[in-house]
Design brief:
By secondary structure, the protein is α+β, with helices and mostly antiparallel strands. The chain has one domain (71-398): Orthogonal Bundle (Cytochrome p450), CATH 1.10.630. It is 50% helix and 8% strand. α8 (132-144) crosses α16. It is globular. The structure holds protoporphyrin IX containing FE.
């Protein structure tokens, strides 16, 4: 029913003016897209082939959606910073259900701005200073164990490291022990449910994801209750949001504009976890790979920017048109899925000569706006940028 509704609610007829192919019935071009995505060069070849055939704007049918793909600085400018309300984020149905309706990723306009403002302070450079020692000690502990290991699986190590950092930042979780294990196992299940098939039946990834989310929320509920009863005082994200920004009691006399309900608090803690974990893990892993292959660049700054350009951790940014608009001479209709292809922007030889080469000196001189989008741009630009850079810098420093 879900897929039928999806198919019927989208209209390929309306997209006739956009060049491109919708591929096979029902599956469209999903298989070519997924196989490109899982290959070493990511979606680059899928995009390149079609851009050469159709131009910078083309249509396709992938992952259950009629989608218009676009690339280039002009498209980035319009899609990422365009008029307020022109596009919204385009999450998968399962992701929407798991994250909850008050997540930053599901709000728009003023509600979105307000949430961004509330989480900005704990994620600022100043707000992050207090976690420096924890991150540094954890990086050292992790690295100290490497020489004794026969084989080091860097992705695995990076994932454990970043999850321990965020667990400690958010709710002072100790890096070892039962609570850490429960947190880790819930998080992994939630993560795999995020873009799963939308069947909420026992045994499916989606069903297990919702169950793990509820278990994670129980952990947060009990921590929130402890903090409110002032049994203990901690210097973490949860404490700073509870103290400053949650509605406890009747809230009379409080500045309600700055208050979050417990639901908003939990939805957004989970959002930070989901948005911040795999991204930072991948960025740290790619940084180590590029550094191992190019040891001469260790002296150079800008290694993280160049890693995020070459690896493009989020290869495309997905939006849904919230109104009709025109781009590169094509009419985009309200409701269409629009994906910005960032890999091609990051490998444009006009901006980055010899684009496959890992060369941090490219960032020595300022680039033209919208040529580099490692952390995005505009109102949805990554709020975790300082934390991600801090974690990677500390880890690489101790390497
Ligand atoms: C190297 C690591 C990271 C990379 C490459 C990265 C990249 C990005 C990018 C490109 C976007 C914008 C996506 C779009 O416009 O559709 C984004 C948004 C976001 N990021 Fe990150 N991110 C990283 C780490 C983090 C961390 C550590 C956190 C949280 C602590 C985080 C939280 C978020 C959130 C909540 C959003 C959505 C913002 C909004 O919709 O207003 N990210 N990230």
């Amino acid at each position: 029913v879900f897929f039928l509704r999806k198919l019927l609610s989208s209209s390929p007829k309306e997209m006739e003016a956009i060049p491109g192919s919708l591929g096979l019935p029902v599956v469209g071009e999903s298989f070519s897209f997924i196989s490109a995505f899982s290959s070493p060069s990511g979606i680059f070849n899928f995009m390149k082939e079609r851009q050469e055939r159709y131009g910078k704007v083309f249509k396709s049918y992938v992952l259950g959606r009629f989608t218009v793909f676009m690339t280039g600085r002009e498209a980035s400018k319009i899609l990422l910073t365009g008029k307020d309300g022109m596009v919204s984020l385009n999450l998968f149905y399962t992701g929407q259900q798991v994250l909850g309706p008050t997540s930053l990723l599901q709000t728009t306009g003023d509600a979105h701005k307000r949430l961004r403002r509330l989480i900005a302070e704990p994620l600022s450079v100043d707000g992050l200073k207090k976690y420096f020692n924890f991150i540094s000690t954890l990086a050292l502990d992790t690295l100290e164990q490497w020489p004794a290991k026969k084989k080091v699986l860097v992705l695995e190590e990076a994932s454990t490291f970043t999850l321990k950092v965020i667990g400690n930042m958010i709710m002072s979780l100790e890096p070892m022990g039962e609570e850490q294990e429960k947190f880790r196992s819930n998080f992994k299940t939630i993560s795999s449910s995020f873009a799963s098939l939308p069947f909420n039946l026992p045994g499916t990834a989606f069903y297990e994801g919702i169950k793990a989310r509820d278990s994670m929320y129980e952990m947060l509920d009990s921590t929130i209750a402890n903090r409110r009863s002032a049994e203990s005082s901690h210097q973490d994200f949860l404490e700073s949001l509870i103290m400053k920004h949650t509605k406890s009691g009747d809230g009379k006399g409080d500045d309600q504009e700055n208050k979050l309900t417990d639901q908003q608090l939990k939805d957004n803690i989970l959002t930070l976890l989901v948005a911040g974990h795999d991204t930072t893990t991948a960025a740290l892993t790619w940084t180590m790979k590029f550094l191992a292959e190019n040891p001469q660049v260790l002296e150079k700054l800008r290694v993280i920017s160049e890693t995020l350009r070459r690896a493009t951790i989020l290869p495309w940014y997905s939006r849904k048109a919230a109104q009709d608009f025109e781009i590169d001479g094509y009419q985009i209709k309200k409701g269409w899925s629009v994906n910005l292809d960032v890999v091609s922007i990051h490998h444009d030889p006009q901006v980055f000569p010899d684009p496959e080469k890992f060369d941090p000196t490219r960032f020595d001189a300022p680039l033209r706006p919208y040529s580099y989008l490692g952390f995005g741009n505009g109102p949805r630009m990554c709020p975790g940028i300082n934390l991600a850079k801090l974690e990677i810098c500390i880890f690489i420093h101790h390497l």
